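Morning!

This is the sequence you dropped in the shared folder:
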Amino acid sequence: MKLDFIAPDKLFLDKSNMRHGKKPPDVSDLMPTIRKRGILQPLVVRPAPDDDRFGIVAGRRRWTADSLARTEGIDHGPLPCAILDDSDDADAIEASLIENIARLDPDEVTRWATFVRLVKEGRTPEDIAATFGLPDLAVRRVLALGNLLPRIRDLYARQEIDAASIRHLTLASKRQQQDWLQLANDPQCCAPTGRDLKAWLLGGQVIPASHALFDIAESGLATVADLFGEDRYFPDPMVFWEEQNAAVEAHRAAYLAVGWAEVMIMPPGEFFSQWEYEKTSKRKGGRVYIDVRSNGEVSFHEGYVSRREHARAERQQPGGEAKPARPEVTSALGTYIDLHRHAAVRAVMTGHPHVALRLMVAHVIAGSPLWSVRLEPQSTRDLGVCESVETCAGEAAFDRHRRAVLDLLGFNSEEATVTGGDGDPFGRQGDRLTAIFLRLLDVPDTAVLDVVAVVMGETLAMGSPPIDALGLTLGMDMADWWQADPALFDLIRDKEVLGAMVAEVAGPTIASANAGETGKVLKKIVTDHLAGADGRTKVERWVPGWMRFPPAAYTKRGGVGSVTAHARVAFVLAERDRPEPDPAAPAPAIDPGMDETPEPPAPVAVAPEALAA
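The structure's back. C-alpha cells below.
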C-alpha cells in the first residue's frame, strides 16, 4: 500500500465497497469540516484494471462530501488516497467493511453479503473474526443468514422484519419459511412476529432443551435451534412432557428412597412461593417441593413446611402448648397509634399532590380494601370478533405502551395487564403496593402520566359514555385506527342497514337500483367499493356510522349502544350549559302525573370544542 494524491475526476466507487449500489449517504455531519479543510483521512482505493482511474474501496462518505463541496465552488485539489495492491479483492472487501463497521454499523444482511464474498475469496470464518475483532460465533451467526430464503433476507434488509423475528425464522424449515411468507404477503392475514412467531413455529409452546431433566440424546427426541442463539427447543411439546413427567417421578422416587418423608409435586397452575414456607430439616419433618412450570422448567425445594405448620410446631412444648407472648401494645392502643399517624400523614400529603398522585396510581394497580377497581375484560363469544380486535391497530399500539409501563415498574413484560391485585395492604399484596409507590417516586411526572394512561385504558368500561366523550375530546377519526374486515360484514344481517351502507359508498342511485337484492349482494357491492374491485370506484377511509365520533344510526329503530352513549354525553352537556335559575322567579308548577326526571335528549352530534369548553 502506498500514499498519493489523486485528482477527483480519476476516482469512482468500486464494486467491492460495501455501500456500492446503495442510495447516496447522509454526509451532513461531514460537510462543515470538508468545506473548511477538505479530506484529512486518506481514501482507500485500488487501481482499475483497464485504465488509469482508481476505485474507492473505503471512504465513500468523505468522497461524496467533497463532491458536494466542489459543486458549491470549494475545491481543495487532489484527494489523499491509500492505494491497495490491484490484485487482492479480499483485502479490498476487508478494508471497506472494517471502515464502515467502525463508522456506521451496517445491517446484518449487508455484513452477510460481504462475509460471503470474503469466504469465496478464501477467508475462513476464523480469519474474518480475527480481522474485524469479532467473536467466531458472531461471524458464524451472520453467515447463518444464508439459510433464510432470499425474500426474507430482503424484507429484513428493508427493516420490514424486526431482529427478534429474523432470529426466530432461523428456527424454521424452508417449508415453514414459505408458509410464513404467504401469510406476510396476504393482506387478509397477519403474519406472526416476535414471541408469537416462535410459538407458531414450535406448535404453541416454547420449551428450551435446557429445561429437560432427561438425557435428550438417549430419548431420541428431536430439537431445533435458531442459528443466532445457543439454546435449542422441542418442536413437539406433548412428547417432551411424557419424558419430562417420567423424569420428575424418578426424582420424586429418589428423594423418598433417601429418607424424605414426603415429596410434593406442585399442581398445574400453582407455584412454589418461598415466602409462604419456612426452611425445616428432614429430621423435623421438612418436605421436598417440586415446582413444574409450563415452559418445562423444574426446580426442587428441599426441606420446607408451610408457615402455619412451622408456627404450630414452634408452639408445641414437651409439657404442652406454650403460652403465647403478651404483645407490647393492646388493641385499643394500637388503634390510637394508627389513627393519629393516619391523620398526620394525610394532612401533610395535601401539600404534596405529586406524591398523592403516585400513591393513588399504586392503589389502582395493586388494590386496596377501600378501592374497587375492575379490569375491562373485552370479552366476546365470537371468535371472529376476538381475532379482529386482537389484530387491530389500536390494540397493538396499546399493547406496546402497556409493555413499556410494565418494564418501567419492573414487572414481567409478558404480564397480560398492569392493573390487578387482591386488595390486601398488610400481606404480600401490600408489599407490592408499597414497592410500586416507592418506584413511582423515582420517575418523572411524564412517566407517571404514561402509567396513568395505561391503567385508565385497562379499566375503561367498553361501550360507556366516557368512551364517546373521550373520542370527541381527542378528535378521534376511526379511519386512522380501523378498516373494514370480514368479521364486520359477517355480523350485519339487516337489509335496511346494508341498503343505507350501499348508499354511503356507492351513492343513492345504485342503492335504489339494488333495493330488492339479497343481503349477500348488498355486502358484495359495499366490499367491492371498499377494495376498488370488479370495476367499482374505490372508497377510502370508510367507517360505518355506528363507529364514528360522533356516531350515527342507519335506521330510526334504535338499539345502537354507541348512539345511546352519545345521547348521554349530549344530555350531560345540556345540563352543564343550562343557565342558573333566577332565585326571585317563582318555581314552575309540576304535573303530578309526570316523572320529574327529564329524559335524555335525542341523539345529536357534539363537537369536540363543546366538550373542552
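Headline: Residues 179 and 541 are 30 Å apart (CA to CA).

More detail when I'm at my desk.
O.
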